[in-house]
Amino acid sequence: MIGVIPMRRIKSVCPRDCPDSCFLTVTVEDERVASVKGDGDHPLTQGFTCPRGASDPERVYSPERVLYPHARDRDAQSFKRVTWDEALTLVSLRLREVIDEQGPGAVLHLDYAGNTGLLSYDFFRRLWNAIGATGHDSSICSSSGHAALALHYGLSYGLQPEELPGMRAVTFWGFNPVVSAPHIWRLAQRAREENGASIITVDPRLSESARSGGLWLNPRPGSDVALAYGIARCLIEAEAVDLAFIEEWTQGFDAYRDEAMRWTPERVEELTAVEWGRIEALAALYAESSPSAFMIGLGLQKSLYGAEAVRAVSLIPALLGLHRGFYYSNSRGRFVDYEYVSGEKLTGANRDIVSQVSLGKLLDAGRFGFVYVNGMNPAVTLPEQGAVRRGLAREDVFVVVHDTHWTETTRLADVVLPAPTYLEKDDLVVADSHPYVRRSVGVVEPLGESRDEVSVMLDLARGLGVEEGWVYEDPWEALTRAFEGAFEDGAVGDLAGGATLRLRSKPRDSYQTPTERVEFYPESAIKIGASPLPVQLPLNRSGDDYVFLTSALPRYTHSQFRDVHGPIPSTVWLSAQDAGRLGFGDGDIIEIHNYYGSLLAKAKVTPRTPPGVLWSPRLFTDLRGEPQNTVFPPETQAIGGGPLFNSTLVRIGRGYSRPPP
Ligand SMILES: Nc1nc2c(c(=O)[nH]1)N[C@H]1C(S)=C(S)[C@@H](COP(=O)(O)OP(=O)(O)OC[C@H]3O[C@@H](n4cnc5c(=O)[nH]c(N)nc54)[C@H](O)[C@@H]3O)O[C@H]1N2
Ligand SMILES: Nc1nc2c(c(=O)[nH]1)N[C@H]1C(S)=C(S)[C@@H](COP(=O)(O)OP(=O)(O)OC[C@H]3O[C@@H](n4cnc5c(=O)[nH]c(N)nc54)[C@H](O)[C@@H]3O)O[C@H]1N2
Ligand code: SF4
Ligand SMILES: [Mo]
Per-residue DSSP letters for 370-403? Predict the structure, then answer.
C-alpha cells in the first residue's frame, strides 16, 4: 500500500526504579519505537516524561543491547555467541552441579529494580524461592526508611502525591525531586501556583530543587535529627502543637516533648550550623500552613544517620495534627500479595537471606558457587566495589547475567542472556507513589533473540526438574490471585483491554503499631536495639575529612543511559573555602580517598556545597576507570540494614592508608 506509513500509538507504563511510574504513549513507526510521551490525563504524569523516558527509543536500539545469548570462553577471555539451548543447558548443568555439591544455599539470586514489573521482577523470583537459593534483603535503596517509619507508624505509607496541589506548605527533606521525581515536583509547583503554598527544601547542598525557589535550609549532613527536634521545640514553645490530636491518636508524647526541650537553640545551632532564627521562622510557617506535606527523600536515609533522621522528620506532621502527613513510599499501603507473586509464601524451602549492601565481602570470600543476576548492575552500584568485582571474577563462581544491555556486570559473567526492554514485553507495574495501574504493554517484538524473564524462568525450572507446580502457574492467573481485593474498581482481568484501575490504599488514620496509634516513644525499638526516641548520633567528621554525597543526574538511571548520553561526568564539587585552603582551582584533577580506595576526578569549585562537604554525580567512572563505589563502605545501618553512602568520609590528596577511625 503505497503512501501508508504503518504508525501506531500504544499506551504503556514506565517500570523504572522511579517513584513516578509514568503512564506513557509510545509511537511505533515501521515496527520501531519512534517516541515516548507522557499521558496528559494521568494525575501524576501530567503530559510529560523525564529525559530518560524521552530517550527510550535510543536506549532500545542502542549498540550496547545484548541481542543474543553469549558464553565466556575462559581461555580466550572473550564471549562467543551461543544458542539459547546451549546457554540454558550450560546454566542448568552448572546450577544442578552447585546445588548437588554445595547445597542450594551456595546459589545466590541477586536482583534489583531495573524493571519493577511484577512479572519481570517478583514472579521471576519463584524459581529461586522454589529451589531455596540464597536471597538478599533488598537493602541497597529504601529499607532503612521503611524500618524507621515502621517504629512510629506501623507501615510506611503516607499521603498521596495527588493531594499536593491542595497543600499550604510542601517540604522536601533530603529529597531532590527536580531530578529524582519530576512529576511529584510538578505537583508541588502547582501547590505554589494555585494555592500560594510555600516550598521548603532541606538539603546540605544547593540541589536542583533547593535552587528552584522557595525556602532552603542547609543543615550539616547527618544533623537532621537535631534540626527536627529544634523545629519541635519551637512548635511546643509557640503552643502550635495539636494537643487534641496528640491525645486522641498518639502515644509517648511526654517523653518526646522532654527530649525536644533538651535541644536548646545553642545545641541545635552547633550541630546543624543553621541559625536558630531560621528554624523558628520555619516552625512558625508550619504552624500557620495547614495542611502541609513532609516529603521524605530516599537520599536522607542512605547514611549512618539515615533511619534516625527519617524517624525524627516523620514525627513533625504528627505534632501538627496530620494523619501520616508525610510521603516516603506508598508501596506498603496496598493490598497486593507480593509474596504470592514471588512464591515467598508458597515455598517450603528455608532460604538464607544475606545483606545486599555488604554482599561484596561474601562474594569475595567465595561464599557462592553460582550467582544469577537480573535487573541489576552490581559491579557498579553496590558499595565496596573492589570486593564485589573480585568476588564476581573468581574462577570458582559461575555468574549468569540476564540484562537488556552490556554492563560492567555482564562483562564478569560466564553466561549472558539477552532481555527485552519494557517496550518489548507485557507486565504490570505498581507505582511507589500513585495508585493507578494499567498494563505495561510491549509495543514491539523483542529485539534479536531476547527473551523475557518469565520464559527464561520456566525453561530453567524444567531443565532443573523443579517439581513445585506453583512455579508453572500461568503468570496472569498468579497476578489475578495476588490482586484479589486490591483494586477499588475491578480486577486484573479488566486490564487486558487497556483499562486503568485504582488500587485501594490503607487508611491514613490507621496505625499498625502495638498501640494502634502514632508512637512517639515506641517500646518496639528496644527489641531491635534502637532507642524509643529518635537519636542524633554524633557527627564523627574530623578536620581533614569530607562528607562525600552522591545523587542522580536527570538523564541517567543509576548506571543506565551511558550508552545514550555518554559517561557520567567524573566531577567533584567542593567549596571555594576548601579549594582555597588546599590550593586547588576549578578544573584541577583531585584525588579523593579513604580506607576502601581512591578516585580521581575533576574539581568543580562551587558555592553549592558547604565547606567540609563534597558532592558528585552518582556512579561515575573515575578518570582512571575506577567505579565510584570503590570508596563506599559495606557497613549497614542498625535500623533496616540500609547503606551508608551519604555519611561516607573521604580525604583529599594522597597519603591516607590506614582504616578510618
Ligand atoms: N534521574 C534519576 N531519578 C531517579 C533515579 C536515578 O537514578 N536518576 N533513581 C531513583 C531511585 S532508585 C531513588 S532511591 C531516588 C532517590 O532520589 P531522592 O529521594 O531525591 O534521593 P537522593 O537523590 O539520593 O538524595 C536527595 C538529596 O539528599 C541530600 N542529602 C544527602 N545527605 C543528606 C542529609 O544527611 N540530610 C539531608 N537533609 N539531605 C541529605 C542530597 O544532597 C540530595 O540532594 O531517585 C529515583 N529517581
Ligand atoms: N554511589 C552511590 N551508589 C548507589 C546509590 C547512591 O546514592 N550512591 N544509590 C543506590 C540505589 S538508591 C539504588 S536503587 C541502586 C540501583 O542499583 P541497580 O539496580 O544496580 O541500578 P541500575 O544501574 O539501574 O541497574 C539496573 C540494570 O537492570 C537492567 N534492566 C533494565 N530493564 C531490564 C529488564 O527489563 N530486564 C532485565 N533483566 N534487566 C533490565 C539495566 O540494563 C541495568 O543494567 O544503586 C545504589 N547505588
Ligand atoms: S523514569 Fe520516572 S519520570 Fe522518567 S518516564 Fe519513567 S516513571 Fe516517568
Ligand atoms: Mo534507589
Answer: EEEEES--HHHHSS-HHHHHHHHH-TT-EEEEEE
Class of domain 70-140+335-502: alpha beta
Instruction: Give yes or no for residue 405 CB within 6 A of ligand 2.
Output: yes
7-60: CATH architecture: 2-Layer Sandwich (3.30)
Q: Which of 385, 390, 442, 440 is CA-nearest to residue 412?
A: 390
Where exactly are the structural domains of the chain? 7-60, 70-140+335-502, 158-328+509-527, 546-654
**Ligand 3 contact, 55 CB (< 6 A):** no
Residue-wise pLDDT tens digits, 579-627? 999 988 999 999 999 999 999 999 999 999 999 999 999 999 999 999 9
Which of 3.40.50.300, 1.10.760.10, 3.40.30.10, 3.40.228.10 would CATH assign to domain 158-328+509-527? 3.40.228.10
User: Per residue in 453-477, pLDDT tens?
Assistant: 999 999 999 999 999 999 999 999 9
Residue nearest to atom 12 of ligand 2 (CA): 141
> Cell triple for residue 264?
536548646
Q: What is the CATH number of domain 546-654?
A: 2.40.40.20
Ligand 4 geometric centre to CA of 142 (Å): 6
In angstroms, the CA 48 to CA 182 distance is 9
Query: Using a 6 Å cutoff on CB, does residue 632 contact ligand 2?
Result: yes
Contact 14/441 with Cβ under 8 angstroms? no
- CA of residue 73 to ligand 4 center, whole Å: 34
Q: From atom 22 of ligand 1, which residue's Cα is the shortest distance away?
A: 299
